[in-house]
């Protein structure tokens, strides 16, 4: 029988919830799991401590299956409970492999990988433990059970257990004989505490408890947290008191609901005007200078920087590609952009004069986190651009610029991307200001244009009808290409990624000028090609892209041209023309991506896919 690694070697995204208070734990845990379902939807389970026993249900598939199983076989009333929603990798996502895992009086849920599970399992089996699943997680249940059976309290038992585990984990445990306590431990895997009025919550993400409290505590690395009916106690793995940081979540339950939209993703696309405006808010002082409060790196240090390396994954990486053009142009500092999972393995040349900028919506992406750790070992300064307060990536960076997009629940990133772009522009302008590369009025001009973006994005959203019609027309296409040049190239890559991950249509983004060096062989009669045309009149960029469109059109492609209003020449080459507002070249991605997001969302909807939870994907990827 193969061993199933709890939540994966490549992806680890499970959602965890714990509740201790005076209300029905089952209701609170289930509603919390529903808000975390975006983290994984292969199976779900809950465990309660009631009347001196552990009672649990777990079920393969979405949380609805678990709810059905509980309706068929109800659970007793309890005020303490834990739950889990899982994204499986190796091995089948079966009922048995679902969490919680129960060993006599102990129930645990686990997120992460216990790398040394095999010898631990062999040792436990030799001592008589009976395993009921193929998971690595179950060893933690048996280890805890054996520690409490030996007389240890749950907190001490947790400390003993974590000292034996290798790998990444959030472990949350309850003990049937101690129904007033939940104990959790965290290493390299997310966990936050929610503090209500006489009730306490544990979750992978604040979304799980936001309807009950907005007061939270972030936990550090290698910490044990104990919830009792009297409060929260956080210690290190060695038992010493630990430093914690309380924070208030600045969004509410409404933000975590669909509010009449069919998908979170569509809602999040339509939230972009707000999200962009919020990310720009409060960045100027009374003298009109840009201030980035969170940057705890001194201007002197920023003046010494001689290279910038941007590190990120997926959509955030594409935001980084756009940032390179802006940062190099505004600051003249050489800027590289690297996929985080490649970064440390190529022994990158970084030193104390390098500024590493990481971009991550979730703030938990393991590849990006590992890149940060590598960069800091080389004494580089690290600035994180992140959307999640208290997440691991901002905590482990020297400084952070928060995007204020609110919760992004749709698995495909949308408002995450546009607010990352805004944060990158702000960083580029700030560096230009600090290093004296731009006059104040030049910076103010770009900021003024950025401030116009929410209304420009709104205008595009208000005029979405042609995109929806286009989606209807192209929904059966087996393959769609995206072309762009300069900052339009990352937009093409992002447009293609959205379509791949949501509609499961083969899609690729190319630099428009590169097409003739090979990919043009793909062009055939009626192949749909989106082309992002740069604004005209400023340099030759636009003219070159128009020539590139003519080249593919001559070979039979069906062209969908995104160009600024009034670009009649571009319109001539277009089978479909999507009007973009007049924006300067560097900022154009902020508007050009919006029709591509709408298109992918609509095609996926028309094809009958689950847009918020695309197959094989999950939201935050916390294992390399
Ligand atoms: C695609 C998408 C992913 C993420 C990537 C990084 O729509 O959402 O490509 O952008 O997994 O995630 P974060 O930004 O959380 O580090």
In terms of topology, how is this protein built?
Elements: E1 15-20, H1 25-36, E2 43-50, E3 53-60, H2 63-72, E4 80-86, E5 101-103, E6 106-114, H3 117-126, H4 138-149, H5 154-162, E7 167-175, E8 181-187, E9 192-195, E10 200-203, E11 215-218, E12 223-228, E13 231-236, E14 245-248, H6 264-270, H7 272-280, H8 299-304, E15 307-312, H9 314-331, E16 335-339, H10 340-343, E17 354-360, H11 366-377, E18 381-386, H12 392-395, E19 399-402, H13 415-434, H14 440-462, H15 465-474, E20 479-484, H16 488-503, E21 506-511, E22 528-532, H17 541-554, E23 558-564, H18 568-572, E24 576-580, H19 589-606
Helix pairs in contact: 3-4, 4-5, 7-13, 7-14, 9-13, 9-16, 13-14, 14-19, 15-19, 16-19
Bound molecules: fructose -6-phosphate.
Strand order of the largest sheet: 3-2-4-1-10-9-11-14
Arithmetic mean pLDDT: 92
Distance between the termini: 25 Å
What is the overall shape?
Answer: globular
Which blocks of ≥5 consecutive residues have pLDDT under 50?
1-12
> Describe the biggest sheet?
8 strands, antiparallel
Gyration radius from CA atoms, angstroms = 25 Å
Count every beta strand, where a strand is a DSSP E run of 2 or more residues.
24
In DSSP terms, counting alpha (H) and pi (I) runs of 4 or more, how many helices? 19
Structural class comes to: alpha/beta
Q: What is the percentage of strand-forming residues?
A: 15-25%
Helix percentage? 25-40%
Small-molecule binders here are: fructose -6-phosphate
């Amino acid at each position: 029988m193969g061993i199933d690694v709890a939540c994966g070697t490549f992806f680890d995204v499970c959602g965890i919830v714990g509740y201790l208070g005076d209300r029905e734990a089952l209701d609170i845990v289930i509603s919390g799991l529903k808000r975390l379902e975006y983290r994984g939807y292969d199976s779900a389970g809950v465990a309660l401590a009631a009347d001196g026993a552990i009672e649990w249900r777990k079920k393969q598939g979405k949380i609805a299956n678990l709810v059905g199983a509980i309706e068929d076989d109800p659970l007793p009333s309890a005020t303490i409970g834990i739950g889990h929603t899982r994204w499986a990798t190796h091995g089948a996502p079966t009922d048995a492999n679902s969490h919680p895992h129960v060993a006599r009086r102990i129930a645990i849920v686990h997120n992460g990988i216990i790398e040394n599970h095999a010898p631990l399992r062999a040792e436990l089996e030799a001592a008589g433990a009976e395993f009921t699943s193929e998971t690595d997680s179950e060893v933690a249940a048996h280890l805890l059970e054996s520690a409490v059976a030996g007389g240890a309290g749950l907190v001490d038992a947790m400390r003993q257990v974590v000292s034996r585990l290798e790998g990444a984990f959030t472990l949350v445990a309850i003990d049937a004989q101690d129904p007033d306590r939940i104990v959790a431990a965290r290493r390299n895997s997310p966990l936050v505490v929610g503090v209500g009025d006489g009730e306490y919550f544990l979750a992978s993400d604040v979304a799980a408890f936001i309807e009950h409290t907005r007061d939270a505590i972030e936990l550090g690395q290698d910490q044990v947290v104990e919830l009792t009916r009297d409060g929260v106690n956080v210690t290190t793995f060695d038992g010493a008191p630990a430093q914690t940081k309380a924070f208030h979540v600045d969004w509410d339950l409404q933000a975590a609901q669909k509010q009449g939209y069919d998908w979170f993703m569509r809602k999040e696309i339509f939230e972009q005007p707000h999200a962009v405006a919020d990310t720009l808010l409060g960045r100027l002082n009374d003298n009109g200078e840009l201030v980035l409060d969170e940057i705890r790196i001194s201007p002197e240090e920023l003046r010494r920087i001689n290279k910038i390396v941007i590190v990120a994954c997926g959509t955030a990486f594409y935001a980084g590609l756009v940032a390179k053009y802006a940062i190099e142009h505004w600051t003249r500092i050489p800027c590289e952009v690297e996929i985080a999972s490649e970064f440390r393995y190529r022994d990158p040349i970084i030193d104390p004069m390098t500024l590493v900028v990481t971009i991550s919506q979730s703030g938990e992406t393991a590849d990006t986190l590992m890149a940060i750790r590598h960069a800091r070992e080389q004494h580089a300064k690290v600035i994180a651009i992140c959307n999640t307060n208290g997440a691991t990536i901002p905590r482990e960076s020297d400084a952070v610029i928060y995007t204020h997009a609110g919760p992004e629940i749709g698995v495909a990133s949308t408002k995450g991307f546009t607010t990352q772009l805004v944060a990158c522009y702000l960083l580029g302008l700030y560096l230009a200001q600090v290093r004296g590369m731009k006059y104040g009025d030049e910076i103010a001009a770009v900021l003024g244009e950025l401030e116009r973006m929410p209304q420009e994005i709104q205008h595009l959203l208000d005029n979405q009808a042609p995109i929806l019609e286009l989606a209807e027309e192209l929904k059966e296409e087996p393959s769609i290409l995206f072309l762009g040049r300069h900052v339009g190239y990352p937009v093409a890559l992002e447009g293609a990624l959205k379509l791949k991950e949501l509609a499961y249509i083969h899609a690729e983004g190319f630099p428009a000028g590169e097409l003739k060096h090979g990919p043009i062989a793909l062009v055939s009669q009626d192949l749909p090609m989106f082309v992002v045309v740069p604004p005209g009149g400023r340099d030759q960029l636009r003219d070159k892209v128009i020539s590139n469109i003519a080249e593919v059109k001559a070979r039979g492609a069906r062209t969908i041209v995104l160009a600024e209003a009034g670009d009649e020449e571009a319109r001539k080459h277009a089978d479909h023309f999507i009007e973009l507002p007049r924006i300067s070249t560097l900022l154009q991605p902020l508007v050009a991506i919006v029709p591509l997001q709408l298109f992918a969302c609509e095609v996926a909807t028309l094809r009958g896919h689950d847009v918020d939870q695309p197959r094989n994907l999950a939201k935050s990827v916390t294992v390399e």
